[in-house]
What we know:
Chain A: This is NAD(P)-dependent oxidoreductase. Chain A: GO terms for molecular function: iron-sulfur cluster binding; oxidoreductase activity. Chain A: Residues 24-58 form the 4Fe-4S ferredoxin-type domain. The structure holds 2 protein chains of 2 kinds. Chain A contains 16 helices and 16 strands. Chain A is α/β, with parallel strands linked by helices. Chain A has 3 domains: 20-119, Fumarate Reductase Iron-sulfur Protein, Chain B, domain 2; 134-228 and 379-445, 3-Layer(bba) Sandwich (FAD/NAD(P)-binding domain); 243-373, FAD/NAD(P)-binding domain. Chain A has a 5-stranded parallel beta sheet, sandwiched between helices. Chain A has a 5-stranded parallel beta sheet with strand order 5-13-6-7-8. Chain B folds into 2 domains: 6-320, TIM Barrel, CATH 3.20.20; 332-399, Alpha-Beta Plaits (2-Layer Sandwich), CATH 3.30.70.20. In chain B, strands 3-4-7-8-9-10-15-16 form an 8-stranded parallel beta barrel, surrounded by 8 helices. A 4-stranded antiparallel beta sheet of chain B has the order 5-6-14-11, with no helix packed on it. A two-stranded antiparallel ribbon of chain B has the order 1-2. Chain B is globular and about 80 Å long. Chain A binds chain B through residues 28-29, 31-32, 35-41, 60, 96-97, 99-100, and chain B through 64-66, 343-347, 349-350, 362, 390-391.
Amino acid sequence: MSLIRISYEDLSRNFEEVEAGLSNREALEEANRCLYCYDAPCIQACPTGIDVPTFIKKIASGNLKGSAKTIMSANPVGASCSRVCPTEELCEGACVLNHATKPIMIGNLQRYATDWAMKNEKILFSVGEKIGKSVAIVGGGPAGLSAARELALLGYDVTIFEAEEKAGGLNTYGIVSFRLPKAVSYWEVEQVASMDVEIRTNTRVGRDISVKEILDSYDAVLLAIGMAHVPALGIPGEELAGVFDAIEFVKETKTKPITDALLGKKVAVIGAGNTAIDAATCSVRLGAENVKILYRRTLEEMTAYDFEYDFAKQDGVEFRWLTAPNKIIGHEGKVVGIECMKMELGEPREDGRRRPVPIKGSEFTLEVDAVIKAIGQSRYLDLIEAFEIEHDGGVVTINPETFQTTNAKVFACGDVIFGKGQGEAMVVSAAQQGKKSAYSIHQLLMPTMETV
Amino acid sequence: MADLSINLACIKSPNPFWLASAPPTNSGYQVQRAFEAGWGGAVWKTLGEPIINTSSRFAAVSFNGQRVAGFNNIELITDRPLEVNLKEIYETKKRFPNHAIIASLMVEPQQDKWHEIVKKVEAVGVDGLELNFGCPHGMAERGMGAASGQVPALVEKQTFWVKEVAQTPVIVKLTPNITDITVTAEAAVQGGADAISMINTINSLAGVDIHSWNTIPHVAGKGAHGGYCGPAVKPIALHMVGECARNPRVNIPISGIGGISNWENAIEFMLMGATGVQVCTAAMHHGFRIVEDMIEGLNNYLDEKGIASVSEIVGKAVPKYSDWGDLDLNYKVVARINNDVCINCNKCHIACEDTSHQCIDMLKDGKGNSILRVREEDCVGCNLCSIVCPVDGAIDLVELPNEFPPMTWNERQAAIGALGCAVDTVK
């Protein structure tokens, strides 16, 4: 990949999808290169167990609708995952051709097949025979959509309660459009909605509808509410104009017209996870003159995927390791700088990560116009409390086999169960948890019916 | 540098690579370009009454995204006047005196017509004649081409007529669209042919367009069978060459044709009895320049084997080609999987499990790694696993020590007959 060409004349162009999809010829050649392994390791490596050789074989044979269906039946957000999955750690990392030539471009082929279905407006699934039971799903992100699709296939009446204007969650709002255009997420939502799943958007549970009403009105409830805003840094100056929450910051680039507010500005991003990378690369695309990622640990401890890190570096983002913010400096209510300290790594803590320790007298100030906080996400504690289920600091306690919470009719999956050594952060894992939760709900409500 | 020159029934050429009578040899311009590229000879596209060709004409078969695995045509013989062709043959021969030019001929099965055309083409200096008794479409409907080639008596008679006047060597090109090609080969020998060439194209329909339901190719919505050639026909051609080469009554040189795409294919045909080879589809797919690799690859092969002349390899594999009844029934090979090389695609397992003898187990080694192992006692040595294996060296077929002395089916039957045993011993 070469350095991106940022357009300063038309910033919105910078938010078009970066990677071009495979051409027909590229897809055909690559699909034919697949060995069509038996009991293939790529299937094992996919959290949703997509039958990769089968969908690739279908591309090779020209059965693109069948290919898309194979993908989407295993993973209801398979179009998004083709773009955002860390494939080199999953399917492509497991490809047997790693030992012979080079792995098959599974992610790109998955995108090719699902792009085809999207472009041709294919509806891939039809509703199962109604069984007269209802399930409420709180949260229309990857986990919730995935569960909804599976339950609808099984014949349940499913209602998704979505606080935002559109469903899709992280895929719609949280992943930068040059990686994942929102049209892709919308298509996945449409696939679910087309199965008679009612998606009540702009409906925040606990505000627009009470928890009690939901618990009383449905046979089972699935909590797939994800995570909330970025927590406070806990340093002076956070209230200044020019301090942003990374999640909100990315969301704005996907929901509002692109502005030139950051054109020629200097930006500091605090944190080094995938969201920090997204905030930084968005800033570059908004025309920022200089973007620095400040991280109190080192490259080793960084949680962003390697390909995200490479992507940011290619965008010209600077990384300042072992750097922690002390205070944000303002002038007339606006950010003008950030005071930082250099850190060093101390002894490892319980979680195995080495603790950063400030170096005395190492304070220095960076001149910046904006500070973007990307130090993780807080939890919807109030809502979890309202369901009166057990949790550990907002990480809902579940039976890891069934995703059942301490309330037998309430299940939980996705980011709401991620943390404290439980769960997984990937979109693809959320999708799989959604499927599994759906099967557990089915087991609970229709124990005599065959499971999937 | 090995000697690559050949002498096929007194037709000499600097190397064994000739262009077959086909679209690449339609004109002087093309043949001269071919000779410049290095082709040793060219069989000029069949001369005869100028005829009209259709549009379109060609179609090909792709396999797993690879183009031109097989090639089909409904083009007929030359559609240019004889005088033009003769003039260009003369000019080409003059410019390339050391390259072989063979005129392919097809006329109605009448003695005077053959005499007339033979005299005309020999007058412009061709090195030999090739009688086209193989074209399977169009001309056959007029009693020529394959229609002649499928009747041994016509093959013999027409060859005889040609030989009555021919001054240059006569090659008879045979059609594969027949049950036993050695019958027509023998007829050619009886007629006095100096050599035979094979195979012409195989009757074919390249495909059907699943959307328009037209044949592929089609001419204004209608199709007709064509002739099939290219890589896909190589095994069929090689078999026919081998059958003729090992038949003592077909005791004349063979020019091998059929799917030859590279130097390795050429060596196979020569080992199986061809004195030289003819190529068409590979040139149509890639242009004349491919001959450079053919020549170089053949030369390197001969040098590495310490063989001074390419003619030394002709027929060397023929004694190894026999009948099923002469194969040793007590010979046994089994598959062995080298797990160090294996990449665990499990294709051998599923192929064996579903379609052969269920003797490849998917196991875990002591460290929990996936391994594949052949239960040799159940393996019949069918080769399927090694055929589907994508990695060279991952599966070997290993010869097992023979418990019994070699015995063929024919020997076995003879032994039973000698014993006068009336019992049916076939299970």
